[in-house]
Amino acid sequence: MRTSIFILFSLFFTYANAATILVRNNCPYTVWAAGVPAGGGKRLDHGQTWTINAPPGTKQARVWGRTGCNFDASGKGKCQTGDCNGLLVCKSFGVPPNTLAEYALNQFANKDFFDISLVDGFNVPMEFSPTSNGCTRGITCKAEINQQCPNELKAPGGCNNPCTVFKTDQYCCNSGNCGPTKFSRFFKERCPDAYSYPKDDQTSTFTCPAGTNYRVVFCP
């Protein structure tokens, strides 16, 4: 009996701070969803959903949408935006430009940390919101950024972040000493709650108690 109780308690504490992330495609076009390290990848036609079960303590994690993809029966191919080494089931981060939902579970002070980042540019409008645990503050980035993208940042199917294009410390913040630029302000004005450059922490990182579940919506 004691062994059974111990196992039950062990299982409870193992899964208590996991998270279920429901990914939904509301876009009128197909999006190939991706998640790393949890999830992998899945094709989502309009209205379809995909559930990612993220283990406790997951960190440096992201969910994103890929567009303009073609895959063969073995799951190999290529995407116009967000491609991850030509695989349907991603094992690595996607190639910019791609809108990112980033998260880390049960970190400092037993909190989850989550954000939407445009540090890798923008390809698909996105919502990233908590759905449980009494946590209600979500994030949306649904501006028409692709259509309004500055000429210097335009890319097929998306809008690049300036670091991807210019690769300078001013835009990439490699030294840690950087601030807003005219390009980061372009993103910030359209999506005020999203990361617009690497040091944009104060207005762009959100928290919920560990054990919260979330949803990611493409084209909210």
UniProtKB/TrEMBL annotation:
Keyword terms of this UniProt record: Signal
UniProt keyword Signal, yes or no: yes
Protein origin, superkingdom: Eukaryota
SMART domains (alphabetical): THN
Secretion signal span: 1-18
The keyword Kinase appears for this protein: no
InterPro entries per the UniProt record, alphabetical: Osmotin/thaumatin-like_sf (IPR037176), Thaumatin (IPR001938), Thaumatin_CS (IPR017949)
PROSITE patterns: THAUMATIN_1, THAUMATIN_2
Pfam families in the record: Thaumatin
Protein's name in the database: Thaumatin-like protein
Organismal lineage: Eukaryota, Viridiplantae, Streptophyta, Embryophyta, Tracheophyta
